[in-house]
User: Fold these one by one.
Assistant:
Number 1:
Amino acid sequence: MAALRYKIIPKGVIDGKVIPLNVVFVLKKDVDAAGITDDRAIHEIAKNTQGASGISIFDMDAVTTTSDGIMIDGAIIKMGAADNGLVNPDFGILAMAEIPYSDQIVEEEPHLIQWKKSYSGRKLFRGPDPSEKIIPVHNVVISGRAANNNSATEMMDIVTMEEILLPILGQMQCITGGDVLVGMTGEMISVGIGMTIAEKFGRVFPTRQFKAGESAHDCGIYAKTLKKDIPCIVAEKRVLADYTMKAIENGCVPARELGCSPVVLCVAKHMGAEIDVGRITAGAQAELDAVGITREFLAEKIPALSREEILRRADELLPGVENAKKINAKEIVLEKEISVG
Amino acid sequence: MRLMHTALPDFIAKMKDAAKKNVPGKNISIKGLENLQSAKMQSLRTGRIEKAVEELALRDDIDGVEMIVMPRVPETMHTVVIKGVGKDGKAQKAIVDVINILHPTEEAVLSDCTEIEDRRPPIGRH
């Protein structure tokens, strides 16, 4: 009888923040070790899990990008949704597309210079190939009440209408047992989510719809309240600072190769790195202005800090999650094992 | 195409009739159509659904029938018309945009049921 191991944050409450459904992390290597397919793994976990669940399968040897273009270790390769053991046959499972490496795609998507320089030879996954969808719905899977959305980085119970934001770096911390911040999104994250970059088969958009320097939200002062009051589990800030600095050290410039999210802009400013302010569109700047990231703030000269100091002071220097508590992931993530013979 | 589709009030009446057809005391509750003021329902399926209602109502172990109508495709794209209306009641300007709405799928209402017979054709067939 083969065994399948996985991790789960059960539906419930963590430090006063509602976790509206079960959040399940499965490693591809554990699926392979169990000798079953990815889809079977999702169904088997669904059968063993009560209530609504978002189930995601990770390849930790691959790489992915954040919505603002930072390349990181590990990738979600398939997402599923389940409700009381049931997985919708048409809309319950969706695979992410592997992006083959080519010099042409690095030219078309210049933030992928990170891939060439620092992650050569690794597989890259972001969002699904729309042609794999039964009809062109968003990058979402839904079974019953459970929705696993934006390529498995936000999950919700559609009936209670409660949601949780799960940025990819926070999920990686949950898998590796690192420290996470459990908090509420707040205005900075609400604005930052919209500062995406142009990617084919991206996490949120299947086409290169919005470029670095633009805002996908494009709604002025309303951007800061769009996703302001949502529970979230994010990586501790030094992890985000580390990857963001690595992207900038690889030659990526905020608003040119990287999205102009508040975090990316603040890290660049403290590094004394270039920000392509001229490419921040009026619409994106209006959203940044609403959270205090004005042109004057960006132009203000401050002493550049060393990499080590930015890492050490990340909690103070990086904007982001509000009302947060730092928790080691091992305290909130349970390890499970089921028989799948 | 009057004959190809069934008017919404007729659809509802047909379902109530089907539930009571053999046992007058059996009722049906219908959820999911509350927001529809006017609609034409696909006739090809209306007859089959009437038959299904009657079939369930006939069973001795069934006391009443529940019908839940929900989007089969759980993300529906809607046009949003925002109209500015003047004092005279005339629209002065309209902005047209789009919004996707996510809906639960059938699993949300099936998990308490032990016997499920799926009579739906594949998506794309009717």
Note: The first helix of chain A runs from residue 28 to 34.
Number 2:
Amino acid sequence: MEVLLNIVNAAPGLLDPAVIIAMIAGTAIGIAVGALPGLSATMGIAVLIPLTFSMEPLVALGMIAGIYNGSMYGGSIPAILLRIPGTPAGIATVFDGHEMAKQGKARLALDISLASSSLGSAVSAIALLLVAPPLAMIALKFGPADYFWLAVFGMTTIAVLLAGNPAKGILSACFGLVVGIVGIDGISGAERFTFGTLELISGVHIIVLLTGLYAIPPAIDLLMGRNAIEAGEIELGDKSKGFKWSSLIPTWIRSSVIGLVIGLIPALGGNVAALMAWNEERRYSKNKKNWGKGEPAGLAAPECANNADTAATLIPALTLGIPGNAVAAVILGALLVHGLQPGPELFRANAEVTYGFMLTMLVTSGLMFVIGKLGAKAYVNVLRVPRQLLGPMILALTVVGVYAIHNSIFEVVLMLCFGLVGFAMERLAIPTAPAVLAVILGPIAEENLRRSLLISGDNLWYLVESPISIVLALLVLLALAAPWMPKLKVRATGGDADGSENDKER
Amino acid sequence: MTRRILEIVAAVSVAIVFAVLFFEALSYRGRSSYVPSAATGLGFVMCLFWMISALRLSPEDGAVPLPVTRADLRRFGLIILAGLLYLLGFAWIGFFTSTLIVVPVLAAALGYRNWKVLIVTTLGFVIVLYGVFRLLLSVPLPPEAILALMGV
């Protein structure tokens, strides 16, 4: 009941013209960003955050919600038309989407993708609105030791499960921890890792790191010609008449559920949701041989699932302050920039903005449908933007955006250095998401560890006294053991641990 | 250079950085040193694991030369140089002036030759940036050489 009351209270905020314009602009920008291969929602939001400093929180968050939702659909445009997924979540869209385009049904494919994406996003936003507030109340029961383990669990899962080599994932998290430590220690007042540099005393601003790691490497890639695409004449084909849309309803229901569940699990993302949904739908399908050859349900399933994942990833981020992936971490950064501390208090102290933000996730899913439908031809032209121009423009936007935070050239230099570090990390197959997560979660873990030690008089057993702490500590151990489990299974069975039926079929 | 050598060189370099940071962290007093020491120590250990995994790379993964051409390196050098000049320009001649110069010059240097599109797009982009950052957000950017020339 309280949830509904808060939703009703927050709804009028969305009628503010500034919020409406921000949502429309964000969605339009998001679709364009997603349509450009090599650029992602994470990058789009990272570039945008500094520009939203002077905005009202709900205006800024409405724009971010639009970018997030829009980019997930935008990724399907090059996937369908050019066989190049605009975002990692668009990989499964290629299987049937591009085949439909080759058969002259590009417009129908784009329409199916748009409708499925909008539905997935809407379901996800409703889940966020209904699940997040009660979950946040559970988080009120957490003590400092529980929070410590929660933060460690968040870092461990992402670090271990995201990288092919767990050592590289943990290394990335350690880098993030070090960056998060830089500056004056809030408890003892000691300077840490500043090396006498005045500008580092107040620490490294999260946006400096986010922009560097997520905006500069794609810009360099564009300039290097790595994401170059040849978009010549693109025919969309005739309008889809006679297509039985109701045949997709069961697909949308199943795929939404898959997207929601995957979104709640840390370290998984839209790409996993999309691939799983595609595979599950094929298992249900009566005509399996059509799959991969232009089956409409094969396009609807991944698009619905990867959008159903969007708001769901924000559930643990908003309620517990534990971002499950890089986009959620960037959005968490945006919340922090606007003075909103994720966690249970967010739903009490800033109920209007928080519920307003969740509502913008719902509204932008509808806006995405309208903008995507009206601007279909314009978005196809986005694929023709010359990369040599786009790269320097992204560079210019990041430079001025980061400068605008504190009017500091030092932060611009630092951001560019992080950009080069991010570029090197990508080349060396070191994931950047654990670093970002560690910057956010590291200080939470440290603060709660020290608080626990202070309460218990340096008794380490205090850390595993409560049942929540024990469960979370076991989950950390499980996450650490996860990469070795398939190997142990191989030894035990003497066979191929990954040789699932699905993989063999693919 | 092969993948194996690159990974080993990178792992050793990062290990040295973490070792330096580890000794720095040990100098902090009391509880202030717990997390810094743990993070840097763990980072150092992970570098060792990384080195071991690089040494154990299979011949088809580890011994194959990296697919980096001389042109790639030249392009990368050009991007870095442009970035440095852009930074200097930002501080000395202003953001908008240096953007007006760097965006088209870098695009042209990387092979884009449609000058009409280059000039129109750059001008439009700079005008939008000026509107957002100068007029709307009033960001105190460094003085602009181009505006000084125009007497603004």
Note: The CA atoms of residues 134 and 140 of chain B lie 8 Å apart.
